[in-house]
Design goal:
The chain is an all-alpha fold. The protein is built from 8 helices and no strands. Helix 1 runs antiparallel to helix 2 and helix 7 packs antiparallel against helix 8. The two termini are about 75 Å apart.
Length: about 220
């Protein structure tokens, strides 16, 4: 009966020890268990109970074994899952992208006529550092000014052609002789409108750069 009690005490302690040592390397857990089995082997119930009390809680035995592991071992100190790193800002939300977009809008049409301006407009629309209204002003205003210039120029050319046709057919009043060294009135208007349209394109990009001051990626 005494032997049966000793075996039950030993097996109960070893079961709790095995449960606590699940996180230890197999070799270390095997050595600890073998040493304790050797110490408890052959003891009667009373001596087994005394020795188990001296060994202490299985959890404490495991903690002592973990403390003796090398410092680089992942079991030496309980590890916690590292928090995922916060994603960095997207490329289109950086100041570098915005600056490149504004410069492309200003001077892309000079490097590659028409296509360069459209590329700059797309880049500006993708950037998140400007408000929607700012993008609309920078992209639409030069486009509208250019369209109005073309419309006005076409109208003036039509009027000029009509006047020339009328004079040639004799149905109209003969115009006064023009000095070929001086531009006609429609030439000055055409030149002024063309100049405004050309200037608005680079100015729109420079205006966006000015609006960009103090803004950071978001």
């Amino acid at each position: 009966m005494t032997e049966t009690t000793a075996v039950a005490l030993r097996e109960d302690f070893l079961t709790r020890l095995d449960e606590a040592m699940r996180g230890l390397p197999h070799g270390i857990a095997t050595d600890i268990r073998g040493g304790i089995v050797e110490e408890l082997q052959g003891l009667d119930a009373e001596a087994t109970a005394v020795r188990i009390a001296q060994l202490g809680d299985p959890g404490a035995i495991v903690r002592e074994a973990q403390a003796e592991l090398p410092a680089g071992s992942p079991l030496a100190v309980p590890t916690t899952a590292s928090a995922p790193s916060a994603p960095g800002p997207s490329t289109t939300s950086t100041r570098g992208f915005a600056i490149a977009a504004a410069l492309t809008l200003s001077f892309g049409g000079i490097v590659v006529p028409i296509v360069g301006w459209f590329v700059g407009a797309v880049l500006v629309s993708l950037s998140s550092l400007w408000k929607t209204g700012e993008k609309v002003v920078a992209i639409v205003v030069p486009f509208v000014a250019g369209g109005l210039s073309i419309l006005v120029i076409s109208t003036m050319v039509t009027i000029s052609a009509w006047e020339s046709s009328g004079s040639a057919s004799g149905t109209g009043t003969p115009p006064p002789a023009n000095n070929p060294l001086l531009p006609a009135w429609y030439d000055m208007i055409w030149g002024g409108l063309a100049g405004i349209g050309i200037l608005l394109i680079p100015l729109s990009g420079l205006w966006l750069l000015w609006r960009l001051r103090g803004r950071v990626a978001r």
